[in-house]
Design goal:
mainly alpha; 2 domains; 68% helix
């Protein structure tokens, strides 16, 4: 059609359709998935089962996200590409790990319960609710003793719960405390930024974790002290809700990396 000067112009080309997403847009969740692996690694004994187990653990997250979208999202077809990509990876890796450690079936059932809870949040359009975050945090903490047990156990159908050491329990507890603190801090800057009481509660939680770390140091376990102190400093300095989520995420990643390094150093 001609423009205002009467000169013919080429018709505008329609924008190419966007490809359906392959990965969830909650980028911070990847750091959550990596932390239990990093915390368990210093106390692991190597076994080939760790490879498919870690692959299944990581791939299960986008696979579960795709299943949730397929069942609860307004446009479920957008999740077909991700489901076709990640479900076979998670399934194949999980079956291989299960062949080495049959007791992982009970762990899978436990995670299935957590997925059912997350699915209820998704159907209610409350995926970002604190309760749903707590499900992921609990799953991350459980993965610490699961990795340690899978590497050191000889197989069978009964989970080697009795073989859990105080060190492994401490690592799982630290995982819970760190991820919960990160969740509260990020929510105080984004979703709960209009509630000053939430930010105060987040900072108080960080101080409480520091006091726990001081008590652990007095008993001879000093390594949680530095990351706990860093979390307190983060809560005092990073308080601007106007910060971009990417910058907030980089600060959280730095604190979690510091925690993993401290665990390795210890």
């Amino acid at each position: 059609m001609p423009d205002r000067l009467g000169v013919p112009t080429a018709p505008a080309r329609p924008a190419p359709p966007r490809r359906p997403p392959l990965l969830p847009d909650q980028h911070g969740a990847w750091a959550f998935l990596a932390l239990p692996v990093a915390l368990a690694a210093p106390v692991l004994t190597w076994h080939p089962v760790l490879v498919p187990l870690v692959v299944a653990w990581v791939a299960a997250y986008p696979a579960a996200w795709a299943v949730t979208g397929r069942l609860a999202a307004p446009r479920p077809e957008r999740f077909d590409r991700a489901l076709r990509t990640w479900a076979p990876v998670a399934g194949a890796a999980g079956l291989l790990a299960l062949a080495w450690r049959p007791w992982l079936l009970w762990v899978a059932l436990l995670y299935a319960v957590g997925f059912a809870v997350s699915l209820r949040y998704a159907r209610a359009r409350r995926e970002r609710a604190l309760g749903n975050d707590l499900v992921l945090i609990a799953q991350c903490a459980v993965m610490v003793p699961v990795l340690v047990a899978a590497a050191g156990d000889t197989g069978g159908w009964l989970p080697p719960v009795r073989d859990t050491t105080p060190t492994t329990s401490l690592l799982a507890a630290v995982c819970v405390l760190a991820l919960l603190g990160s969740t509260l801090h990020v929510k105080s800057l984004i979703r709960e930024r209009r509630r000053p009481g939430f930010a105060r509660a987040s900072r108080a939680y960080a101080v409480a974790c520091l006091l726990l770390a001081v008590g652990a140091a007095a008993l001879g376990t000093w390594w949680p002290l530095l990351p706990a102190a860093a979390a307190v400093v983060r809560g005092r300095l990073v308080t601007d809700p106007g910060l971009r989520p990417g910058r907030i995420g980089m600060v959280e990643l730095a604190v979690l990396v510091l925690l993993a390094v401290a665990a390795w150093w210890a």
